[in-house]
Structure formats: C-alpha cells, structure tokens
Amino acid sequence: MSARVRRSWLVVPMSKSEEIVRASRSTADVIVLDLVEFVAEEDKPAARERVEAAIRTAQAGGAEVFAQVDPELLVADLLACAWPGLTGVIVSQLESAQQVADVDGLLAELEAKRGILPGTLEIVAALETARGNHAAYDIGRASPRIRGLTLGRADLIMDLRPEPSGEIHLMPYLMQRLIAVARALGVTPLGAWWRAPARGLLAGPDDTYHAARRGRAIGFTGSLCIDVNQVEPLNRGFTPDDAEAAAATELMTAYRAGVARGVALVEQGDRLVDRGAAAQARALLDRAAACEARAREKAEMAARPPLVRP
Amino acid sequence: MAAHQVRRSGLTMPVVTRRFVDHAWRRGCDFINLDLEDSVPQHLKAHARGLIKDAIPVVRKGGAEAFTRINHDYVHADLEAIVWPGLSKVNYPKAESAEEIRLLDDVITRLERERGIRPGTVEIGANIETATGVAAAYDIALASPRVKEFGGGTGYDMSRDLGVEMFVGFEQFAYGKGELELAARALGLQVRAAPFVANTTGSVSDADRALREAQAARKCGFRLGGGLNPAVVEPQNRGFTPTAEEVEDARWVLERHRELAGTGDTWIVIDGRVIDRYEAARARDTLEWAALCTERDREKAEAVLRTRAAMAEPTPPTLA
Amino acid sequence: MAILVRRSNLLAPITDTARVKQAWQSDADAITLDLEDGVVETRKAEARGLVKEAIALAGQGGAEVFVRVNAALLHADLEASMWPGLRGIMLPRVASAAEVAEAVEQMTALERRRGLAAGALELIVLLESARAVWDIRSIITANPRITQVGLDESDLACDLGITPLPEHDPYVYARGRLVIEATAAKVQPIGITYPLGVHPRRVSAAEIHRMATDARNLGLKGVLCPDPSWVAPVNAAFTPTAELVAHNKRVREVFAGAVAAGTAAVPLDGRMIDVPVDEWAKVVLAMADACDARDAQKHAPRAGS
Domain C8-237 falls in which CATH fold? Predict the structure, then answer.
C-alpha cells in the first residue's frame, strides 16, 4: 500500500459537479472530493447527497478517490462518503489521537454496513494547526488506517505568511518535521505548500512543477492541488526523469563493477560511490518503474467501458 | 488582547546605570527590561537588587511596562527584590526545565499575595538559551499560566552552548526556533519569532536594519520587539504598527469577503488577489492590532504629558 | 570536563591494505577501520581476520582507532575487533536504545574475557532512519560509552524517501535535532554540511574547509572523512587559528580590566565586550588549548607501539 503511486491529489469541491467530471478526465493519481474547505455551509447537505455518484464519476479515469471530511461534522460527512469505490478519507484539521479513534470506529461500522472489505478504508491525517502538528506522532500511530500525513492548508489555517526570502514562514520546518514523523511511523508524507505569492495549494503550472521537484528533494512523493492545470506538473515533478534514471543506472553499473572486483568504494568522477549511493540509485529506479506501471494502469482504466449499475 | 500587551519595542538596561534608568521614560518604549543579569557586573549584583523597587515607577513614567531580567542562579534573592507593584514581567534566562518555572511561579505567587499585587499579574518570560532548554521546550512553556509568550532559541548564550560563532550569514538555529515556535502556537501563547534575515555584523544600533526586521516580522504576523540600543526603539514602534494604507486595505478585504456570502463560493479572485475567509481573518487581525497600537500610543503619550507637567517641563511643540 | 578533540575521523576500508597502512600519515585525530560499507559482502569474513594487525598499523601516528562493525554481524565483528589499542566501536544503523544495550553487553563481556579495562571502549553511533532520528534521545542516553553521534545521510535518504538535490537540504530538521539532542545529552554531534554528507566527493581543500567551517557553526564537533584528502582541511576548520586565539586573549584581558574598574562592558575595536563576549572568548581559548594538546600528543615521538 505504501508503494502506491500518488503524485497528484486533485481536490474538488463536492458542490461543483462539473469540476468532478473535469477532474476525472485529468491524469490525477488521486481525486479528493471535498466537503470542508470549498463547500459553503449552506450547500453541504446537498453536496453530501451527491458523493456516492461522484465517486464513480471520479474513478472513471483511473484515479483513486478520497473524500475530505470535517472532524466536527464527522458522522454526517462519513455517512455521505464511505461507499464502495472510495479508497479513504482526508480528515482536515486533525488535532488528537482521540479524533482518529472516532474516525476509525465510524469507518469500521460503515465498512460492515456497506459491504466494504473491513479495515481497507484509509485515513490521511491533515495536520493543519499547531496542536495537530505538535501531536503528529501520537496522531499518526493512533490507527493502522492512517497511511499518510499532510500539512494540507496549514499555511492558511495557521496564518503562516511569506518571508522576505519567499519562503512561507515555518513551513520548511513543519514539512521536514512531518516527513520525519511520517517515515518514523512508516506512513507516507503528502506535500502541500507553495512559496509566495502562491498560497493554499494553488499555484501556476511552472511553480507547481518546481514545488514538486523541491518536494521530492526533501522526501515527499506526492502533493495536494486545487486546479486541474496543476495535475500534470505534479505528476511530472514527482516522477524521476530520463536523465536521473540514466545517471542512476550508470552509478549502479559502476558500483556493481567495483563489487565484482572485490571493492566496495568506487569513484565516479569526483564522487565517492558506496553501498549507500547505490541504494539511493536503486530506490530511484524502482520509483521510475512504479510510475510507469501507474501510467499504464490509468490508461487501461480509462479505456474500459464505464461500469453499469445493476 | 489587553492594551498592555502591545510590546513592539523595549530596552534591556543595567539597573545600576543611573542615567539609563532615569532617562528610560523618554525613549518611547513599550517596555523597559531592568537587568540584574549579564549587563550587571558580578560584584554589583547585590547592590543592583536594592535598586529595582524604586526604579520600577521611574521607568514607567512614559507609559512603559516594567520588566526585570533576573539571574538564573539567584532566583530567590532576585525575586524578593523585584516583585513589587508595577512590575509586569520577570524574564528568566537559560530556562531548562518545567520544574524551574514552577518554582518561579510559586515564589511569585507568594510575593504577590504578601505585597498586595493582584494574583497572576506578574508574567514569566521563560528564555530558552541552551540545547537542554530546547529539548524541554514544550514542557517549559506549559509549566505555568504566567508564561504568556514563548519563542527564541537564538542569541549569544545559545551560540555559546552549541559552540558556534554568530553572524555567519546563514540560519544556524532552525531546529530550536521551529520547536519553540511550534510549542508557542500549540499552546496558544504569543509567539516570539521573526523571519530569518542574514546578519553578518551583529550591530545593535542599526536603525534601518531594525525597521526592516520589524516590518518583515510584522508581515509574518509577529509583534514582539526589544533591543539594547535606543536607536532601534522608534524603528520598532513604526515597523510593528500597521500603516494607514494597510488598515484601509484590511477594510477593503473585509468588504469583499462579506460580498461572498450567499454566492455558493468560498473564495474569489479580484485583480489577481485571492479573497477568502483566511484573508478576511488576517484583515480582522490587522484592524484589531492597529486599534491596540493606537490605544497604546495614546496611553504612552498621556503618560509623557503627565510626567512633563509634574516636572514642569515645557511640552515640545509636536509630540509624535 | 576535558574537551574531546576528535575533529577528523578517517574511514579506511580494512580490505584496502594500502589505505590502512597510510592512514596514520593523514594526521587524522581518529581512524575507523571499516568492516561495513567499505567491504563487499563476500570479503567480510576475510576482513575480520585483518583487524587485529590493522589496529596497530593505524594507531602508529597517535590517532584513536575505531572499528565500524556490521549491525547484522555484531557478535562476529566485535570478537574480531576488540583488542588492545582499540579506542572504540562505531555502531551503524542504530534504531533503538535496546540495540545499544545489546552491543554494550557484548562489549562488556569481551572486555572481561580479554583483560581490557572494563567500560573503557567508547561508542560512536550512526543513525540511518527517521525512527532513529525521532527516538534519538533514548538512543544516545542509553549508555555512557556513547561519546559521538552522527547521521548516515545516504541510508537516511532511502529511509526518508528523498531524491537529494544539492540545492535543497532535506536534513535541516534531522541535523538540527541531532545537534540539540546530542548537545543536551553531552554527546558530540558529528557530520558535515549538505550535500557533502549524502554525496561525498573528492574536492578542493578550500571547499572542504569551507563546508567543515559551516558544519562547526551549526554545532557539529567533527567530521567522518571518507577520503584522506578531507583530513587536513577538516582539522584546520575545527581548530582556532593563531589570529583568533590572540584576539580572544586580548578580549579576556580587556574585559578583566573593565570588571576591575567596576563596569560590565568596554569597547574594543568597534565592538562592545561584555559578559557574553568574554564567555565566548573562554570557549575559543579552551578549544585552542585542547587542540594544541591533541596535536602535541599525535606528534610526540612514539615510545614502543
């Protein structure tokens, strides 16, 4: 499960059905049906009614489907979302292990009621407040359903603002801390940040691509976004490119040649290559292969005729 | 937030230097930090203690709050000497454990009671200046309700503890600063923080730099200033206060956001600018802060007028 | 408390006999005979047989001698390594206090069996996983033998899912945590600035010196050197220069004068010298003395082995 390729997570408001159709035609690895950030209070009841059908629409292009739910409106939101076809939920502004236990319990009930394989609905914890980030470790281990941690829109919810350097204050620190905690727990860290002037998951395609590259460089393997034009840059940014793959192959060849000679440390130009470097190269090649497999999978799913309800 | 918590500017000064204390009220500071610690030579510390009680009202004549910085190793003697009516805060250096803070709280509580100070008045500033302090930061910040602001994790003492030179031009304290700020935010305390601005001179009197740093800090939502040299006071007062344009802009944002109600949209882009509930929250925050600054400035101006009148000093033609 | 001066620790793969023979000439403060990443799988048994003799070879210049063991071959590697002349063991891939305890138990038993001074051998631990970074406090306080701790940035990259790019340092949090927790536990944090830790290269002495100086100013106390060319610039970067020593002696004199005259601060060359500046001068001078002493030790004529 942790090896699933999830580079682009496109968040769409449940109140806008045309955006869901657009999303299903994008190449997003994951579509997130939002009931929290982008749906006005008065529109929520109607939005909830539409989720079950929206899951099928969203899946049509091969994306996995998550829903973003509000921990303060847990029962209503989860009832609306936990249908076959859903992979999991992002719980926004999670702050405590107790909340995780509540979500876990409700999901278990709904799995039983609705014929979903028990224990399969995943949780991604959105740590968007200081309290949530501080409790990241306890939250992350509070349920085996938790497969990911993200900062979500912490930049807005914590009111973190741009510094003269262009960085969003405290975000670089929170990001690296989140990555460390996530990996310590064996779960996936999910990116979501931009440098000024972009904010709140929204940025132009170029900025999005560069943010993805930076994300990869510090340990993210995917990121949230809110505009369909960000999907392709995220997919590209989080996929090893040909030059990197070639360099990794070359390095592994040099290392293996050394090992064959009985030597565990070789030089490649001025670079000192050892088992650790070879391990990094191996990981990159594995990642490239996984991305290719995901691309094939999505193409197959898109080519299938749409599911017909019995 | 009460008006007395506007602390944009302040001077830390050795209480034994008479002329500093006597003229403090003229500097325009939001607070004065009377020092018993590093700026007071060892052999004068006992004498210094005896000066605090009278110094408190003297430094408050211009409307500033009075704080003191005590010695890490002389807690009991220092607290006995400083907790008097008029004191707002005790700054405690090199805090390393929650236990230390609880001890301070206990002693201050007793002294407040004995000396007719409203219980809970005196705040504790827990200053983190060592690696051990950073490692225990959250517990320290949580240790007493008298701790109302938190942050830092840089400075001379931290540098010495880590064995690093200062002013090397890159961020040396990212972890400590991050941990302390996260703790402060998680506990709802006011945050003592600032964006990183490379500094290779270590100058304490550069007014331009002080203004730039204060503006950058305020743009990031921070409001706490302070320093050693009078040259930075006015720049900090100015840098930490919203300008008239910013206040106007905040009002504009709030109006645009109000117009979103009932449209089914939670956000809108106007002239390339996102307007949503987060921008609205920031705008409200700016207006609230601007009002607090205005109130504080008024308070200080009135105190200065009263003091001048009492001294039968002529009032200068323009009082800023 | 005596300052531990171990500015440079040169890694020498034990099957590289030329390297092992020449290591002492690099003037490294410490030499680590490597049984782990420097030795291919198929030669690890052979490598063990080389350790005893290599300890004497490596130690002939006065360097402290360590052996980096394989976490998965702990017992055999410790058996092969713990001989007179050894300063300590470098333990890689440490992920828990329990692992430290296990290693210490075996070391204690071997010390007893071989008549080595009980508890004398030190531990340098390397952390290579996010789990270890998170649990660092319990790891480094697990046993007083631990004197230094570092990150293996290569393996940590794999664990954190990082594709390192030279322009984005992914270890700000991990390295920062290392420095703070180690300093608080009175253990020395070791390492070099990014990206030389994750992508070690043979580059100019000036660049190594610059990176090592930055490392020092992040709070690190020494560098694991994968190549002999790193040693001299690393030693220099962690040693106060004669100029710096002279300046700080002057600071101390001037400040003492101020105290005698009853003030707490005095100007010198355009700077105010007060308690914190004087305190820093003490640190620099103590470090300079300790470095001098270590260098003298290394360069003293060796009596016997």
Answer: TIM Barrel (3.20.20)
